[in-house]
Structures are given as C-alpha cells and as structure tokens.
Design goal:
single chain, 536 residues, 2 domains, five-stranded mixed sheet, 19 helices, globular
Length: 536
C-alpha cells in the first residue's frame, strides 16, 4: 500500500489486559503527582507571573459584579488577543472554589497537556503513548517558574495536533479529524503565537505524506478551519500584539552553550541543574536501551515507507524551534524572555523520536514505573522549594487581610530575598489582592494591550482607570514619586527590609496601618463618593 500501512494486529499490545490497565493507571498517577505536587504543597506557587494569572481570572469571573469594579477598568479584546484558556477555565472553577485554588487547578490541567500532548504525538507515530511520559521533564523547568503556563500548554497542544494530523492521514477517521479541529481551536485560544506553527506543520505533513498514504484529504478541513481562524485574528489583532521583531543575524550560536541556563537553572545554587542533569541521563539511558532492543529485535519501529517522513516532521519541528532559539531577540514588544522559550519547545519533542516499546504489556508497565521513578525525584525537589517559599509568604497573607474590598492599591517590591528562586516570585505577589478582593492595581499587564482585556479609554466618562506606569515599572520601584504616581491610590503596600515611611512623608494624611516583617501597609483616608459601604 502507498502508506506501508500495517495491520491492526501488529499495533496491538499483547499480554494480560489487567497489566495494561495498571500501566495506564500508573501513568495517570505519575502525571497527577508530578504536575500537582508543587501546587498542592504551597498556598502560593513560586511562579513569577502566577499572581496575575489569578487576578486576570478574577476579572473574567467578576466582571459584572459591581463591588469588584472591573467593568470600570477593563474592556475585553478576546479575539484580538485570544489568550483565554487559562483565564476562562479558572473563572469557571471560581464558581465553586476560591480564586487562588481555582487558578492553581486550571494551571495544573494546562501544564498536564505537556505529557498528554506528547503521548498523543507518539500514538500518531504508531508508537506506545507511554513514551510521551517523558514530556513531564520540562513541566517544572524555567518557563514554569516564570509562570508561562499558556506557553507550556500550547506546546502540549502543538504536539497533540501533530499526532492527530499524522493519525488522520494514516488512518482516516471523522472522530480523529474532529479532535484535530478541536485541538487547533483550543491552541488558538490558548496562545496564538504557537498557532501559526501548527498550521504550517499541518501543511508540511500533507506535503511529505502525499503519495505515501492513500489520501491526505483528511487534513483539508482542519487546515481550512485553522486558516480561517488565523485570518480573522490577523484582521482584528491588537496593534501591539505583533510588534516588529529585531532578528538576531547572523545567528547567535553561543546560546547553545546556555541551554542549561534557560531550561533548568531555576533556583539559586547548582542543585537544580544537577537534578535535571540526572533526569536527562536517565532519559539518555532509556533511549539507549530502546535502541538496543530495536536493533536486536528489529520489531520496535513500525515498518513501511511512512515511518521516516513521519519522524522527519517531528525533526523539522525541533529544528525550527532551535533556529528560533538562536535568532529571536530576548524581548519583542511587551513580551519578555522570548528566545529562551524555544529551546524548551525543541527539547520537549525529543522523546517522540525514541524507538518504540516492545508490545508486551509487562514491558509497558515496567516502562511506566521506570519513568515515574526517574521523574518523581525532580517533582519532589521542586515541591520542596515551593513549600519553603510558602512559609515566606505568611506575613503577606496576614497583611492583605487589612485591605478592604476593591482597594485602590499601589504596590512596590524592593526586597526580593526569601526564596530559592532565581527570578523573584515576590514581584507580583500583591496582585493576589485583586484576585481575592477586586479593585485597582498600580501595575497590570492590561496596560500593554497584549492581554485579552485592556484598560478602558480614560476619556470614557464611565471609566475609572489607573494611570499608566513607565516601562519595567514593577522591577524598578525606585522610580516611584508620590506626587507623580500616588494621587489615584488610597492603599500602598511595600515589601522592603527597612521602613519605607520616607516615601510618604510629603503627604501626612497617609498613615501606616500594618507592618508584618518586611511588608508595610499604608492608607490615605478619603471621603466616600458613593453609598455607605461602597469603596471610594
């Protein structure tokens, strides 16, 4: 046959069915544990951007609640900047769960798409889905600790779309075709940046598979739907969402020596790099063992002319990501840490190139157990760091209890000490106040127009919008001047080792109302502009 299609019996795993079910149960438990442990042990995850994920999710959940005052600040632009999945899912969970718990649950589900997406890709390559469990390795790398949940979820969905596309051309099915369309739409609304890559790769799959399978027509409808969605977005996108890219040319090959820094250097010291290196060696040992088995048995890889181009698709995706890693800048518009993300995208796909497992169920169960034992220590290591960070936020939790509903809150973080993290997990911690109480913040990424909602036009008579802050304001609190930046706000929260009283001395109406360790809270009383009990 053109596709070299093998009979279903050759793909079937052989052995006692209970062992197969046990393997799947162990795989699910491994995913739940590795992804969920750091979220479970900490009240606040040690993730830099996570507080704003919770705050933004609250905007979706409480937009129409007058007491939260979100409608006065924000206007949605959900098609122009379609990064909705995390916030929409969190908002749904907030119906029955507290805001932070709901956001943690939503983030965990999206981060679990990394191994699940890689499992689908391996399945699409006619191999055991259990190979995709090694997609758990990058779940708690550098990108997760920055808080790039949507990017990680998009990688999983990207891998899933490749696997489903390969399956569509290999074994045409309306159900698989529908699943591919659904995954592409979900990818679009998770992170539009990764969406064009998926669309291009689908076209590439159609080209390389033409003549090797009976028909590639099963890709026409998914590609058509995806193209239409992309065209609509392109016509409605926010102006700042596609800024000019200052490409690095010639490529910066020196970045290849910093792969460890951008993927595994998450904590102060070398323990994290050693832990990832150990896990990487276990993956290399696994690959070597599977290669030996494949050579000895000559049965671990699927047969036929289909297999080489199918794996070529994955290889091309890896090469593209590595090319972007050495040519993209660090910053594009308001987006930071751009090129380092691509090396994670490349390494994430590597396990899909592993030789297949033998078909015996006991081998599959053993592989799942081996993978769990190999990756669990990494999850334990990260969870310990998150648990330790949680103990340093006790005083923050105490001081935010002093805030009223919907405060106008200006926050300044001078002190970033207290956790193992390389990147400050304290920088946006006060955004949890907006997540739990609503109100206004002195800084919100909505001001950059690269969010699914933006600040309303200040000229709108119904708008109550904080003043825009300078670039990198949140990272440079020394820019703060009370007379220039403080008039809008009634509450001031500062993290600083020494007293920040001098920052507010020019306005004697501002008084300190609480101090817990290195957190300081100040208040400027103002007469109410509304009914009793309403926040001014």
């Amino acid at each position: 046959m053109p596709g070299g299609r093998i009979e279903p019996a050759a793909l079937r795993v052989t052995g006692p069915p209970p062992l197969s079910w046990l393997a799947w149960l162990c795989a699910a438990a491994t995913i739940i544990y590795v992804v969920g442990a750091p979220f479970w042990v900490a009240d606040y995850p040690m993730m830099t951007e996570f507080p704003f994920h919770a705050a933004s999710s609250s905007v979706f959940r409480h937009y129409t609640d007058a007491g939260w005052h979100f409608h006065e600040q924000f206007a949605f632009q959900m098609l122009a900047v379609p990064h909705l999945t995390l916030y929409a899912l969190s908002a749904i969970f907030m119906i029955v769960l507290p805001p932070i718990v709901a956001t943690k649950l939503a983030a965990a589900l999206l981060m679990a798409l990394l191994p699940i997406g890689l499992m689908v890709l391996c399945w699409g390559l006619r191999k055991s889905p259990f190979l995709g469990l090694w997609g758990l390795v990058p779940v708690w790398g550098v990108l997760a600790h920055w808080g790039f949940v949507d990017f990680l979820a998009a990688l999983g969905l990207f891998a899933m779309s490749l696997g489903l596309a390969l399956r569509v051309v290999d074994r045409p099915s309306a159900k698989v075709q529908g699943a591919l369309i659904a995954v592409l739409v979900l990818l679009f609304f998770t992170q539009a940046y990764r969406f064009p890559f998926a669309l291009v790769m689908l076209v590439f799959i159609g080209l390389v598979m033409h003549g090797r399978v009976d028909s590639v027509r099963g890709l026409f409808i998914p590609i058509g739907v995806a193209s239409a969605l992309f065209a609509v977005w392109w016509l409605t996108r926010a102006e700042m969402f596609v800024p000019k890219v200052r490409w690095v040319w010639p490529p910066d090959w020196n970045r290849m020596s910093n792969v460890g820094t951008y993927t595994a250097d998450i904590f102060i010291g070398n323990d994290d790099s050693e832990m990832f290196r150990r896990t990487g060696l276990l993956l290399a040992l696994t690959a070597f063992a599977l290669l030996v088995i494949a050579v000895v048995r000559l049965r671990s890889w699927p047969k036929g002319g289909w297999v080489v181009p199918a794996h070529l698709v994955v290889g091309i995706a890896i090469v593209i990501s590595l090319g972007l890693y050495v040519t993209l800048p660090m910053e594009i518009g308001a987006s930071w840490y751009v090129f380092p993300r691509e090396v994670t995208a490349a390494l994430f796909l590597v396990p899909a190139l592993l030789p297949n497992l033998p078909r015996k169920t006991w081998v599959h169960l053993g592989f799942v157990i081996w993978t769990a034992v190999g990756i669990a220590p990494l999850a334990d290591f990260v969870a310990d760091a998150h648990r330790e960070f949680s103990t340093t936020t006790v005083h923050f939790r105490e001081i935010v209890r002093e805030l009223p509903q919907a405060p106008k809150l200006l926050y300044l973080v001078y002190d970033h000490q207290g956790s193992r993290a390389q990147n400050s997990p304290y920088i946006h911690l006060p955004a949890y106040a907006q997540a739990e109480r609503g109100g206004w913040l002195s800084f919100h990424p909505a001001q950059n127009d690269t969010f699914p909602f933006r600040y309303r036009d200040a000229a709108d008579p119904n708008a109550v919008v904080p003043p825009r802050t300078p670039v990198r304001w949140e990272w440079s609190p020394q820019q703060f001047q009370l007379d220039q930046h403080g008039d809008f706000f009634d509450w001031f929260l500062v993290r600083r080792a020494g007293s920040p009283d001098s920052l507010f001395v020019s306005d004697p109406s501002i008084q300190r109302v609480a101090h817990f360790e290195n957190w300081w809270l100040y208040h400027r009383p103002r007469p109410s502009a509304g009914p009793p009990g309403e926040t001014p």
